[in-house]
Amino acid sequence: MTYFMLVLGVCFVLGGLAVASNPSPYYGVIGLVLASVVGCGWLLSLGLSFVSLVLFMVYLGGMLVVFLYSVSLAADPY
Q: In this structure, are residues 63 and 32 in contact, taking their beta carbons and an 8 Å threshold?
């Protein structure tokens, strides 16, 4: 179980680095989804299933709205 938590922690950090280091929002959202899923898996392994579900719905839903807004602004020539 300790190794599983360590792997989830490393994947969470790598997902955060993927969001921060990608200049393109198209590839940054992949890191965002990875970090969100791994964070929810981490909470699930601790037995916090409701908190994990709320985190997934609120965090990922809100951040994907911001992602779509930034992509639409980047695609608009005016």
A: yes
Tokens of 15: 């997902």
CB-CB contact of 39 with 58 (8 Å)? no
Residue 8 phi/psi, 5-degree rounding, is: -65, -40
Cβ 36 vs Cβ 59: under 8 Å: yes
- Helix, strand, coil distribution of the chain in percent, nearest 5: 85, 0, 15
Residues 52-62: pLDDT tens digits?
A: 888 888 877 88
Domain ranges of the chain: 1-74
pTM of the model: 0.74
